[in-house]
Specification:
It is built from 7 helices and 9 strands; from the N terminus they run αβαββαββααββααββ. It is α/β, with parallel strands linked by helices and about 220 residues long. The chain is globular, with a radius of gyration of 19 Å.
């Protein structure tokens, strides 16, 4: 979450540095800031701000501008990336991390994986999100005027289905109202999918589940 990210930055820059967090939700910001200040990280501040609004980021420029799982949810991805790049100081870095959801699977693949991914991809799609944002980062960097990334990194995570099912079911259930409203699935279809996950998590608790791939891209500003 934002708290862990800002704490890591605060520890890196030390008491003489400064860390600014941005989020559209002021409640998240207030909770995060309280937690950080209680831990002694007084160099942290927070602003509730809609990053899609066409206005500069306060306090810029910064030596590091970092965002995680932000562009995925937006339709104005290139515009926001341009705004983030504008906030980077000369000699500083832009670092972006985004999911590519297409990597979710079990090994061997179980029968419900296709249905789960069809619902997740479809519901995110109608909401304007792009499940392939991580893989598109190099293209987005170019579109945003940042230029080709200096580097990219792809990280995965594998865990047993017995625990990994929680992530799958949570995302699936959260997207279900959208999927039902747009005819991507039915109540009966969704129940059958959830029953299949439940059955297989009992039968194959140790089967490896691959999480979405977390893809990073970065660029140094000359």
């Amino acid at each position: 979450g934002p708290g862990e990210t800002m704490r890591a930055m605060a520890e890196r820059v030390g008491p003489a540095g400064r860390v600014l967090g941005l989020d559209a939700d002021p409640e998240i910001g207030a909770m995060t800031l309280t937690m950080l200040h209680d831990a002694g990280h007084r160099q942290c501040t927070f602003e509730a701000r809609d990053i899609t609004a066409a206005e500069p980021i306060p306090g810029a420029p910064f030596d590091l501008v970092y965002s995680r799982l932000l562009l995925f949810h937006l339709t104005e991805r290139a515009d926001v990336l341009t705004r983030l790049w504008d906030a980077v100081a000369p000699g500083g870095h832009l670092l972006i991390q985004e999911y590519d959801l297409r990597g979710i699977n079990t090994a061997p693949e179980l029968s419900w994986v296709h249905d789960v991914m069809r619902v997740i991809n479809g519901a995110f799609g109608v909401a304007g999100a792009d499940v392939t944002t991580g893989a598109r980062l190099p293209e987005l960097f170019v579109q945003a005027g940042v230029g080709a990334p200096d580097g990219t990194d792809v990280a995965g995570r594998i865990e047993p289905l017995a625990t990994g099912r929680i992530l799958i079911e949570t995302v699936f259930r959260s997207l279900l109202p959208t999927a039902l409203a747009h005819g991507i699935t039915t109540e009966a279809g969704a129940e059958a999918t959830l029953s299949s996950i439940d059955r297989d998590a009992t039968r194959f608790p140790d089967r490896p589940l691959l999480w979405p791939l977390m893809i990073g891209a970065w660029k140094r500003k000359e």
